[in-house]
Design a protein that fits this description.
This protein has 246 residues and is an alpha+beta fold. The chain has helices at 3-29, 35-49, 89-96, 114-120, 153-191, 194-207, 211-225, 229-241, and strands at residues 55-62, 68-71, 100-102, 125-132, 137-145. Strand 1 and strand 2 (68-71) form a beta hairpin. The longest helix has 39 residues, at 153-191. The termini are far apart. Keywords: Transcription, Transcription regulation. It comes from Micromonospora sediminimaris. Residues 176-237 form the ANTAR domain.
Length: 246
């Protein structure tokens, strides 16, 4: 098979592989509402789905919080954190807001502190692509190869598309996480409210369910009856408090 025949086939397979990766990443993150869990899923799916990639990591910088790291292999997680300062592929990609990489770390002069450790761990090539998530979080997805020259221009395109797609999905995860936290705060306030808390206690006793489920039952009743939650709670408490006729 000559080069002219192989190249279009390789490009087609690369496109199909990237499409499959983005589909798997979407399926894996679409319902997740925990950011760290989403990062763990992202690196695992990417490692398993992209040929030539032996490991995958993610470096996340969050305003007012320590840097976050996810790694498909815990043994390599240190390569994605900040222990090497700005002299890492991930931090360079984040700082420059563009993809960086090296096909062969054995001849790579950049990142003088990071590269020797990476090579000790078996890393021979790297691609880091910046990921814009929201106004509070930025990051980089890091693809690692165990063989020199295993990462090709096709991998660079995959990394670029993955970074763009993952940024959108992770932003949605952040939104769901924030909404869940807000709902949790609202639920806590409701449970601490006198009559609503009492009504929840009644439902918990009757159904043997936790407070969150009891509050959902109360909300469902309010929605079905089209009356305020407090009024439903007052009716329930009044009903169970009413003396029984002998």
């Amino acid at each position: 098979m000559n080069l002219e025949t192989r190249t279009p086939l390789a490009e087609t397979l690369g496109v199909l592989e990237t499409a499959a990766l983005l589909r798997e990443v979407t399926a894996g993150l679409i319902a997740v509402d925990d950011f760290d869990a989403a990062l763990s899923a992202l690196v695992r799916i990417t490692r398993d789905a992209v040929g030539g990639v032996a490991w995958c990591g993610f470096t996340a910088l969050r305003a007012g919080e320590p840097a976050g790291v996810a790694a498909s292999d815990p043994r390599l997680s240190g390569l994605d954190d900040l222990r090497y300062g700005p002299d890492t592929p991930a931090m360079e990609a984040i700082r420059r807001r563009e993809m960086v990489g090296a096909e062969e770390l054995g001849v790579e002069p950049r990142w003088p502190d990071w590269t020797p450790r990476a090579r000790e761990l078996g890393v021979r090539g790297v691609i880091s692509a910046p990921v814009d998530i929201d106004d509070q979080v930025i990051g980089a997805v890091n693809l690692y190869a165990a063989e020199p020259d295993a990462l090709t221009p096709a991998h660079q395109l995959t990394a670029m598309l993955l970074a763009e797609h993952a940024g959108l999905l992770l932003a949605a995860v952040r939104d769901r996480e924030k909404r869940a936290a807000l709902i949790g705060q609202q639920d806590t306030a409701l449970l601490n409210d006198g009559v609503i808390g009492q009504a929840v206690g009644v439902i918990m006793t009757q159904r043997g369910c936790p407070a969150e489920d009891a509050l959902d039952v109360l909300r469902s009743a309010a929605s079905s009856l089209s009356i305020p939650l407090r009024e439903v709670a007052e009716r329930l408490v009044s009903t169970v408090s009413r003396p029984r006729d002998n």
